[in-house]
Amino acid sequence: MPGQLNVLLAEASVPYDIVFEMEEVNEDFENVDVTLVIGASDTVSSAAEDDPNCSIYGMPVLRVWKSGQVFVLKRTIGNTGYTGMENPILYKDNAEVLLGDAHDSCEAIRTAINMN
Fold first, then answer.
1. Is 42 one of the annotated active-site residues of the chain?
2. pTM for the whole structure
3. pLDDT tens figures, 55-66
4. Residue 45 — φ and ψ, nearest 5°?
């Protein structure tokens, strides 16, 4: 988990013992079939590793784009986050973007999975 998100976890009363550190999971993404990204932008941006001109170049990120398939839940396309640019993972061949309220989208996904 990127360090800047620890405050959010504390506010949501998420126990730290169920959260993995980035270095614990980053190498696993190549073996992950599906990754679900909810509302994150800079913390999963491939530009941090691929674009030396990006303001977050060199920042540790979760390498979700290495998963077999990435589903990104966002309210809108165009929110640029700290970088001032759209996240390149949104346009990768293995990524799909689901626009809308994250809670509603998660409920719709859960319902669809339970129907099968």
1. yes
2. 0.81
3. 889 999 999 999
4. -85, 125
